[in-house]
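ingest -> fold -> write
write: protein_1
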Amino acid sequence: MMGQLSLQNLFVVLLVSCVSLSSSLKKDECEVCISLVTKFSESLSSDEKSNPKVIENKFRDYCLDLKGKENRLCYYLGGLEESATGILGELSKPLSWGLPADKICEKLKKKDSQICELRYDKSIDLKTVDLKKLKVRDLKKILSQWDEECDGCIEKGDYIKRIEELKPKYVREEL
């Protein structure tokens, strides 16, 4: 009876540890959140880090100059004036306890899954990339970054042809 009970306890412990391992963040998951929380945390003094209210006020100030994906994350957390919701307490309290950025983002993901859906755009080296292997959305993104249009482009080949035409104008070959 005693051996059977300890075996059940062991099974429960193993089951719980497997579940907790599967819910932790993967390496490239939540990259914008982890990066932003890390940079923000490093910008705070040790006195500021101990007070959740100060952290929240500093975060709102920190968000004012951010652009792109980081600005979007500020919006999701409630760090911007126009934010529809506010879960800054879910950032400030764990940060004041000294929790690492990945664990904070893991908790934030449970509140709003959009937080970990933000990804930094991958840069494409146009000197070495095989355009045929890119997706159409990536080809469109290249043209958009160049502020160029692709009138009449319907198929992937049309976009590749347009990029090849414009490459000499935008991609400099070093000598």
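write: protein_2
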Amino acid sequence: MDELTINKAELLLEVIGQVEETLRRMGSGYAAARQATLDSPHVMKSKREVTGIEASYLANGLAQNIQEREHELRMLKGLHLPESPSRVVLGCVVGVGPMEGPVERLYFLLPVCGGMEIPLGDGERTVRILTSGAPAAKALLGKHLGEDVPLPPRPDHPTSVRFLV
């Protein structure tokens, strides 16, 4: 196994930081779309004058996305990271790869933010966030260290759970 140490708490803080930054950008976009809705004339002069309607659709969509990101943020801030689990559970960082080779992929199993990638300090590797609904997470959850795991998309080529952090 190669020399790789990952601080889960710092990694979680990085995920939280990315969600907060996304929320900040969405808030700015929502404010602009809401203002465009308010600034548009309330009486359309022609059937093609739809700027206000489009801005209101955009504001409503952003408001829904903001609510979802706020929910994710609350879940992440309330998440308890397991100290030294005997099996793969939510909150674990899992490295997978052949027992004799290097770690091929790194996953951080979280209840939200699936698909997000967090770069590690070395700049060469990233940790991909998986939620429990992802096929790879379903294959990993409950497995023990060193256990062979058939991961999608190549279940005929099993890899091993290399380490848990």
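write: annotation protein_2
The chain has a mean pLDDT of 84.
Residues 93-164 form one domain.
pipeline exit 0
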